[in-house]
UniProtKB/TrEMBL annotation:
It is found in: Membrane. Belongs to the major facilitator superfamily. Sugar transporter (TC 2.A.1.1) family. InterPro entries: MFS_dom, MFS_sugar_transport-like, MFS_Sugar_Transporters, MFS_trans_sf, Sugar/inositol_transpt, Sugar_transporter_CS. Residues 64-522 form the Major facilitator superfamily (MFS) profile domain. PROSITE patterns: MFS, SUGAR_TRANSPORT_1, SUGAR_TRANSPORT_2. The chain crosses the membrane at residues 61-88, 108-126, 138-157, 169-188, 200-222, 234-253, 324-346, 366-388, 432-456, 468-487, 499-518. Gene3D superfamilies: MFS general substrate transporter like domains (1.20.1250.20). SUPFAM superfamilies: MFS general substrate transporter (SSF103473). This is Quinate transporter. GO terms for cellular component: membrane. The keyword Phosphoprotein does not apply.
Amino acid sequence: MSKLDDMESYLELASKVENTRAQKDANKTMLQKVTDVLLLKKMFEKIEDRPTPSEVYNWRVYYTAFIASAAAIIIGYDGGFIGGTVALDSFREEFGLDKMSKSHADSVISNVISVFHAGCFFGALISYPFSFYLGRRISLIIAATLITVGSAIMLAASSKNGLGPIYAGRVLAGLAVGFSTNLTPVYLSEISPPAIRGRIIALYEIGWRIGDLVGFWINYGIDSHIAKSKTQWFIPFAIQLIPSGMFLAGSVLMRESPRWLFSVNRDDKALDNLTWFRNLPLDDEYVIFEVNQVKESIDYQRKKVGLGLMDPFKEVFGGKDHRVLYRMCLTCGLFLFQNFLGIQSINYYSPKIFASLGVKGTNATLFSTGMFGVVKFVCTFIYIMFIVDSFGRRKAFMCSSSVCSLCFWYIGSYLKVNDPTKPGVTAGPGGTAAIVMMYLWIASFILAWSGGPFVVGSEVFDQNIRSFVQAINAAVSWIPIFIMSRYTSNMIEKMHYGIYFFFASLAVLSVPFVYFCIPETKGIALEDMDKLFDLPAWRAHDSVLLGARREAEHVMHDHKHLFKMDTNKSNQIEQIEDPLLVSKV
């Protein structure tokens, strides 16, 4: 062995880690313990399912995650720029919206916004066969190419050509984005070490927020510094080519998922990629254990379900115990709550919403939406660094929903008694408080619901059905996005303050849903996710994590004879001879 002499020394390392932690806790004074409680230190610890070499937490995983997450920049940018751009007078005059009735113009704008999401829905569904046959990397390259082409087509729109190129380009780009919303979280979950998997997947959210930030502020910048002309609305559309080009160039440099390579029996390439991602030699105990863990999971699924294209469909919808179908319904529920809590309405119609709260003038509303993007960006970093892998997914969901609900109850109540859009009515201190509540709402939402469903949805399914189920999850998520982007304008006109009561009520309902149905997944290996759903959600995490640590010790200590060097293969990797025996330990 390159780092340890034998398996017993690995166990010795595990014991030392636990003993050191216990000794540190024992030596703390009462004041230090109280301070730890007040600072919530236990909540923000990095949770490992086994002792992990520091080399595993290296730049290669983060570098790859940033490249893969470039697709999210396009999604975020679209949410940030399109609502403000189509509201510009220059855009409305270019395409004759200023000569239409208000209802007709609102309908056209809603169509421009929502056709993108219709494309996303179908793109998410068709991504599964591409991912199955071509792998994660090639499929992402295809998505990057389609996004770039679609972004270029939109630039052909003009008063002469009409909105046709924008419709066509947004549908094509939407198809590609639908691809990426399925494949990117799955890919990131498969290359990540368990202890930082949530953080790595959440980098997808960072890309989203970067796009958000640029999209929100680009409209403010052009409205402030560029005279009303075609250039004013053309620039925001042209900027889409920058992130799409970055995504295309970066995707070519990515390495394929080792887990996918193992599933298609390309072991040599899988081992090469895994050791590259982990920054460890092939004979390191950590690599050996992970390889055998993945192979055991794949072998079990091959015997239980099969690894064919349609086998996941049979497993999900034709399984005898329906446990996988139930689990998929739970993850779909997370995505439905995510997009029906109000985020899409706020994203795409933020200028109109801030105007309804008393913000006057196009430039002022665009500035308010720009600050909205800043809050989202900052809170995304907080989520990645301190929440997702420390505080956890489950508690974050429930805390976020509680705060979001309170914020919208206040805003709805304020608008019920005081409507600043009516002549002679001023916003007053209550209106200022409503704007503050809107910023507090988005901060709370981003700290859990924005990225959390993507993290959980990409974690909790077995290797051979993960891509299929994530395609379903992604498609389901685009349904409420399409509905809200298409009909929010109508809801604001018809429901007025009631739209906030609607979103607040859904936030309340999400709390018991998470408490009773969604287990904590932080620090749990992908291969151990099944065990979480065999226990009540509110106590599953601690039981499974403790069991995983004990199982690692038992396998390595009591069953060393199961590990042997395979001298008949060039990769020289140690393998478990009988995975079924190990599963009984």
